[in-house]
Specification:
114 residues, alpha+beta, Arc Repressor Mutant, subunit A, 3 strands, elongated
């Protein structure tokens, strides 16, 4: 049997953070390009620095992004742990449904033979 064990609140925070297109875009940019200043994360989305800071705050709360201070800038980078939690959730459900449909297919094939 396929099983998945994780803190539901942790999974909820990750999915909430990634439910917004701007936050997903910021996360993708950080994954592709590496550490970036907050102001650079705001630019492609046409949002103000305070708006970007709110989105980044949600990503930080979910554990997806971490930021550090360097001089006058806040540099952000992806912490893959929370992304791994979301990926594990999807993998579990993909396996679960695959096994379930496989079982259903066998039952239907047996009924058809009878």
């Amino acid at each position: 049997m396929v099983s998945f064990h994780s803190d539901p609140a942790h999974v909820d925070r990750a999915f909430f953070a990634l439910s917004n297109a701007t936050r997903r875009g910021m996360t993708e940019m950080l994954l592709r390009e590496g550490e970036k200043p907050m102001r650079e994360l705001a630019r492609p989305f046409g949002i103000s620095l305070p708006g970007a800071m709110k989105h980044i705050g949600v990503l930080q709360e979910a554990g997806i992004v971490s930021c550090r201070r360097q001089g006058r800038e806040n540099l952000c980078s992806v912490d893959p742990g929370a992304l791994r939690t979301a990926a594990n959730w999807f993998e579990f459900h993909a396996r679960f449904w695959s096994v379930s449909f496989e079982r259903l297919g066998k039952v239907l094939a047996e009924k058809k033979e009878k």
